[in-house]
Amino acid sequence: MLGRQRRPLHALGVVVSGSKVVVSAIVSETPSIRLLRLAREDGAPLGPYRAGAHIDVTGPTGILRQYSLCGPPAETATLAIAVKLEPESRGGSAALHRLCEGDIIEIGEPRNILGIVSGADRHALIAAGIGITPLLSMAYELYSSGADFTLDYICRDRVETAFADLLENRAEFRDRVRLHTGLSRDEQREVLESVAATLTRDSVVYTCGPTGFMGTVAEIVTPVVGETNLHTEYFEAAEIDISGDTAFTVELDTGESFEIPADRSILSVLEDNGVDVFKSCEEGICGSCVSNVLEGEPEHRDNCLSVADKAAGNQMALCVSRSKSPKLVIELI
Ligand code: FES
């Protein structure tokens, strides 16, 4: 065991990895979405965190999942997550839906893939379904900072629209938020085109929702704001064709070298050789395992790095991404 210590990616606040917290309140936002408020048993503060952050949550069945923090980032007494009951879940969301107030669960440090960009002339938040959660914390922060922002929130129907009352009635949101329910695909495109019409090259778009939806958002807003001003957060792993995968070499900045077979990930090979790599989802979503690339050309297969980060080629997710060059030199961060 090399016992290499890593610092958490973008960690902020006073939660430490593996903290026990108590479920202090539960609210049924919709028939399938529960809001859980989490607090420290000793009443000590948990925040603040950066808007758009997510945390690892380990429920009573031991299944670890990532959930976006959806409360005001400056609020320090509790952290809020919204859990959608997934019919095809492997038990993670179902277990969290069985929790009662007073139960104890384990959480990790807040980490950011999404974060508010400074200097934009307008911030456009575009959510679909449970994708509202990271964008809600960003809306709180944008309001606090006095930034110009809008939030367009698309849902299948009103009954399944989480936070509808809050968004429609709170003074900080009601003039900036548009709820869209029951739209056809064509009508969704019209909404997105109307948002794009209000933006400039200096505007920034943040979107979260199903992969297909975010693809439509990208298609419509990228010609206006450019690739680097579109920021996405995925809940799903990218679909990957592994049929042409080949072996390559990974060298760490320490000089240690490892052969990565065609059917193994960099992460799994490093772990088998006793290298301590920070990880969570192992699906290329959470950003925990992202490390620096010092030499070589990564083949990105994650859904956590931005288009700009991938184009720069100096970071990669070790759990899913591979190499276009025979060798990569990596610095674990
Ligand atoms: S462990 Fe989550 S992106 Fe690699």
UniProtKB/TrEMBL annotation:
Transmembrane segments: none annotated. Coiled coil: none annotated. Keywords: 2Fe-2S, Flavoprotein, Iron, Iron-sulfur, Metal-binding, Oxidoreductase. InterPro entries: 2Fe-2S_ferredoxin-like_sf, 2Fe-2S_ferredoxin-type, 2Fe2S_fd_BS, Beta-grasp_dom_sf, FAD-bd_FR_type, FNR_nucleotide-bd, MRET, Riboflavin_synthase-like_b-brl. Pfam families: Fer2. It comes from the Bacteria. This is Oxidoreductase. The lineage of its organism: Bacteria, Bacillati, Actinomycetota, Actinomycetes, Mycobacteriales.
